[in-house]
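Everyone, study these two lines:
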Amino acid sequence: MIDLHTHSDESDGTLSPGQLVRAAVELGLEALAITDHDTLAGYDRAAPQARSAGLELVCGIELSTKLRHHPGGRGKAVHVLGYFIDGVPTTEFRLWLGGIQHSRRDRNRRLAARLESLGLPVTLAEVEKLGRSLAGRPHFARLMFEKGYVSSAQEAFDLYLGESGKAYVERDEPGLAEGIRRIREAGGLPSVAHPARLGRHSDVVDRLIGEMRGLGLGAIEAYHSDHSPRDVGQFLDLARRLGMAATGGTDFHGGTKPAIALGTGIDGNVAVPRAVLERLREQAIRR
């Protein structure tokens, strides 16, 4: 059993990288990928501990990108996982990530100001105490709940933080094509994350992923806690037809998403076979 989609407290998870490694070892996972949002800090911190524990740790990342020129104005949000099977990415890629993190902090500053104007004061310092340099909307939601502004973190997103919320502000995110290109140039293999979120109609999703393949996408996340058995079958078949690899993981966040268990997802709905990682290696060699 492996898990190739997890988050530490270096982004929006609640376990430290070391705790995540220990949890994986205790669970008996054969391999783990830490795929924090827009940062490699979790992997960097976990790597020495994983080596000591004998756990195979895959270097990964999850980038937030926008599909430009998508009908609807703002651009469709697409998350892209990057897997660096052969080693850590380039210094140039890390510097590029630094620019993304600067953009995230600027968005957080504007979001705090918007909430203040709505009579819901949440300071940037409070948010960064929870999320540090990778603070984001989940940390705003947690604070809003703790301050009694909303009845749940989900309500914070529904009313204020989501794309249709009263306090929503845009973040300068890279385009999908750039995200895929940057991962490839850094020696990684890009995979579309949780593709079931791309749309309700399977033919539309299949067409979108076909377009992404033309941009250099190398894999599809078939196994995910959001996916039904039918979804898994659809994406495994699509990967086969397009000559792409399949990836998979739970999208574990610890206490941020308590229903999702490391390695097994929601009520055991995720079981990623070891062969998935071997196929990723083959795809990386042919890259």
Q: What stands out?
A: The beta strands are 2-6, 31-34, 56-67, 76-84, 189-192, 219-223, 245-248. DSSP finds ten helices and seven strands in the chain. Residues 2 and 82 are 16 Å apart (CA to CA).
